[in-house]
Specification:
single chain; transmembrane helix; transmembrane; membrane; mainly alpha; 70% helix; 0% strand
Length: 230
């Protein structure tokens, strides 16, 4: 009797990064981490020079529409060169719209800056870990260091307990998502598709919806929740 998995298998493309030797996998991970981090720095710089935003809904809708569209294109061209080319070409636009959205959130008083601290420490881990890279170790060490940094900055800036708590939440949730998705996308990307992988780290926020649909379809196909008749 074959017992199916409770959740569907991860989406894979032929020749993906998980099939590479360990050193090449780590090199790919580092390039994607560096690319996303420097993109985040550029995003923050662009947001700082933007005029104050009174309406957060418009940039939110634009960003979600852009990422949703890129998700559709990735589904249509999955495993083909067109996906990587379109994704890489769209990266500057993604960063610009994300900067607009981030500026709107900052102007509403949300401590979105805290999200960058966790990634900064995660990148430092990637730099200094040598041959002993671990996604779990990266997340745990980066979370401890960044949480301490957020707490110190909160005390130094005399943030209210509510804002300090929000900052810790932004840091923790973003770092957890970033670490998990960076590990997950290795089976969907090939060597040379680092720019597309950076875009994946933005658009994969929609994966929770697509993954939910896949899980439901998997359950129906294998009748996992169906009570067997006697």
């Amino acid at each position: 009797m074959i017992v199916p998995n409770f959740t569907p298998d991860a989406i894979e493309v032929p020749g993906n990064v998980t099939e590479l030797p360990y050193r090449e996998r780590v090199a790919f991970i580092r390039r994607v981490a560096y690319g996303h981090f420097f993109g985040l720095v550029g995003l923050a710089g662009a947001a700082a020079f933007m005029s104050p935003q009174s309406d957060w809904r418009k940039p939110t809708l634009w960003l979600f529409a852009l990422l949703a569209g890129l998700n559709v294109l990735r589904t249509l061209f999955r495993g083909r060169r067109e996906d990587s080319v379109i994704s890489a070409a769209a990266l500057p636009l993604v960063l610009l719209i994300a900067a607009w959205w981030a500026r709107a959130l900052v102007d509403r008083g949300l401590p979105v800056w805290a999200a960058g601290l966790g990634e900064a420490f995660a990148v430092l881990y990637a730099i200094f870990c040598g041959r002993d890279f671990s996604f779990t170790g990266q997340f745990v060490l980066a979370w401890i260091a960044s949480s301490a940094a957020v707490a110190w900055l909160g005390l130094a800036a005399r943030l209210s307990p509510a804002v300090a708590g929000q900052a810790l939440a932004w840091n923790s949730v973003f770092l957890l998502y970033w670490s998990y998705d960076l590990a997950a996308l290795l089976s969907r990307r090939r060597k040379g598709e680092e720019a597309a992988a950076v875009v994946d780290l933005y658009r994969d926020v929609f994966n929770v919806f697509g993954w939910t649909v896949r899980v439901v379809q998997h359950w129906r196909q294998h009748k996992i929740w169906t009570v067997p008749s006697r």
